[in-house]
Each structure stands twice: as C-alpha cells, then as structure tokens.
Amino acid sequence: MVSRSPFEVPEPIRELAEKNVAQARAAYGQFMDAMAQAVEMWSRAMPSNEVTAGFKVAQERAIRFAKQNAEACFALASELANAKNIQDMLAIQSRYAQTQMQTYALQAQELGRLMAEAAQSGVQPKA
Q1: Beta-bridge partner residues of 8
Q2: Looking at the domain assignment, is residue 57 inside a domain?
C-alpha cells in the first residue's frame, strides 16, 4: 500500500488539471484573436487625428498587457496543476502574487503616462 501525505495531489488529478489548463488557454487565445480583429476593424472606422492616434497606442498597449496578464494566469494555473502538495501550491501562489502586483503597478504607470500624453496632444495648439 502506498503511503501518501494527506495534502499530496495524485498524479492523475494533476494531469487532468494540466489538460484543462491547456484547453482553456487555447480557447482564450481564440477569444483574444477575435477581439483583436474586432478592435482593429473598429479602429479603422474611426477618424484619425493626433488624439485618436495617442489613444490607439494606449489601447494597443492595454491589449498587450491583457494578453501578458492572461498568459501569467495560465502559467500560474499550469504550475498549480503540477504542484505535488499544498506547500508547493502556497509557494507558487505567493510568488505569483508578488510578481503580478509589481507588474500591475508598472502597467498602470505606463497606461497612465500614455493616456496623459494622448490627452495632452489633443489640447496643444497647432503651431
């Protein structure tokens, strides 16, 4: 009889979880591709000027950040699916939380800067 820690995750459960993560990642990728196409079509229909160009840059950056953050979530899910016990899971979650909080702060700063630049370009008089 195999002795197992009460908090150990059995291998078949980890394999199933990893398969589910891969399927969710693929579905999310398809969704993001469709959303990016819709945003691109919408952007082409909008009149172009300095203000909309600046906001377009911010919009593109926000989409890139969303993709990066989703990928980080899927990486977390994959790591958690492969964790052997509760201690591994807690360590993985702690690392993820620390890293993502730093990432979110940097992303918010960059988006704020881009939005301010876009807004500023719309109020500056033309020479």
Answers
A1: 85
A2: yes
pTM assigned to the model: 0.75
What residue has token string 């820690």?
A: 5
Domain that holds residue 100: 11-121
**How many domains are there within the chain?**
1
Q: Is residue 126 part of a domain?
A: no
Distance CA 106, CA 100 (A): 10
- Does residue 3 lie in a domain region? no
Rounded-to-integer distance, Cα 121 and Cα 50, Å: 6
Residue-level pLDDT, tens digit, the chain, 127 residues: 455 566 788 888 888 888 988 899 899 889 988 988 887 887 777 776 665 777 888 888 999 999 999 999 999 999 999 999 999 999 999 999 999 999 999 999 999 999 999 888 766 655 5
Q: Does residue 90 lie within any of the structural domains?
A: yes
